[in-house]
Write a structure and sequence with these properties.
29% of the residues lie in helices and 18% in strands. It has an eight-stranded antiparallel sheet with strand order 3-4-6-5-7-2-1-8.
Length: 245
């Protein structure tokens, strides 16, 4: 068979041209992806800083020194081995949360509830859930009082060892963090080590002034494997208001 040299030359040239175009296009795609990725990375960092979790919540109180209330809250535990915990309250920081806490104390709301959550890694113990009175530990942490939620009352007072904070929902599907700010109700937690992640994110409304080592004992209690739930109920006998000494 006779070979068409001219045709073969044309086809060879076309194949080389197509290959060069392919290589150039591929290189441009790689370069564009690299530039796009870098830009996205910088924009994401900027957005996180300007609009994300680091943005101060509305109505943040800055530079306000806590002023103790005339009354303290005294937590007595059912198990004598846990002793008692005395907490001073800060109505100048969080007037609505302090008023709610005192109202529920006077009603005996907390009597018989438990410290249903202990987390040594975070350094917190949490209690005050009415659901912890029943025999279903799976619902502990999800309960509220019959009263409306309390709006967030944020300050720049840091979460240090002994700080009393108002527990709230954490946001997530169907709820922004800003909406979750206003879901405090009756539950509370005590931080037993410095926890900067909570600063300006959870209402500070008091601090332990006596019995901090008893709170440490509670945090050291054994938990059900794979959970933050105490293996045995840690029951609050009562919380009462007493005149500050």
């Amino acid at each position: 068979m006779k070979t068409d040299v001219a045709r073969d030359a044309r086809e060879s040239f076309q194949r080389r041209a197509l290959w060069i175009v392919f290589v150039l296009c591929f290189a441009l795609l790689l370069l564009g992806a690299a530039c796009k990725g870098g830009a996205n990375s910088n924009n994401a960092n900027s957005k996180d800083f300007d609009e994300g979790a680091l943005k101060d919540p509305p109505n943040l109180k800055k530079g306000v020194k806590p002023e103790p209330d005339a009354e303290v809250a005294v937590i007595e535990m059912q198990n004598p081995g846990y002793g008692r915990i005395v907490i001073e309250l800060y109505p100048n920081l969080a007037p609505q949360m302090v008023a709610r806490f005192k109202q529920l104390i006077k009603e005996g709301f907390y009597n018989g509830t438990t410290f249903h959550r202990i987390n040594p890694e975070l350094g917190i113990i949490q209690g005050g859930d009415p659901n912890s009175k029943d025999d279903n530990p799976a619902n502990d942490g999800s309960g509220d009082s019959p009263l409306p939620n309390v709006p967030g009352e944020f300050s720049d007072v840091p979460y240090e060892r002994g700080t009393l904070g108002a527990a709230r929902k954490g946001g997530g599907p169907g709820m922004t963090e800003e909406q979750a700010f206003n879901t405090a109700n009756c539950q509370f937690f005590i931080t037993l080590k410095r926890q900067p992640a909570f600063d300006k994110r959870y209402t500070v409304f008091g601090k332990v002034i006596e019995g901090l080592t008893n709170a440490d004992i509670i945090m050291g209690a054994p938990t059900t494997e794979g959970t933050e739930r105490p293996a045995d109920p840690i029951v609050i006998e009562s919380i009462t208001l007493q005149k500050r000494q």
